[in-house]
Amino acid sequence: MKNILLIDDDDIIQKIISKVLERNGFNVVSGGDGKEGVDKLNMMKYDLVITDIMMPYLNGFEFIQELRRHPNGKDARIIIFSSITNEDAIRDSKNMGVDLYLSKPIVINEFIDTVKTLLG
To answer: Which residues carry this modification: 4-aspartylphosphate (predicted)?
Structure first.
């Protein structure tokens, strides 16, 4: 079973995405901000990390920097989903090694297909 870390400060998005991923056979651990995401890195090794950008304490970019330093996240695939769609944010994410940048709102069936493709 593939492990996914989901970080988003919107509880509703967190619950919906978690349930859909779990129904598709993934183990999902979630957190509400980047600081909590860093804490969750100590739990297990993750195959995929899904994060928002605009969050309290540590934003998504700061969280990704921490993720890449941690043994349980340094090799994880990364998806950003955010309402920020400017070219600078997208370029910065690519420079950080993000696999995919999705704009909110997402189409859930396409999202699941993308996750399955990324994780093989």
So the answer is: 52
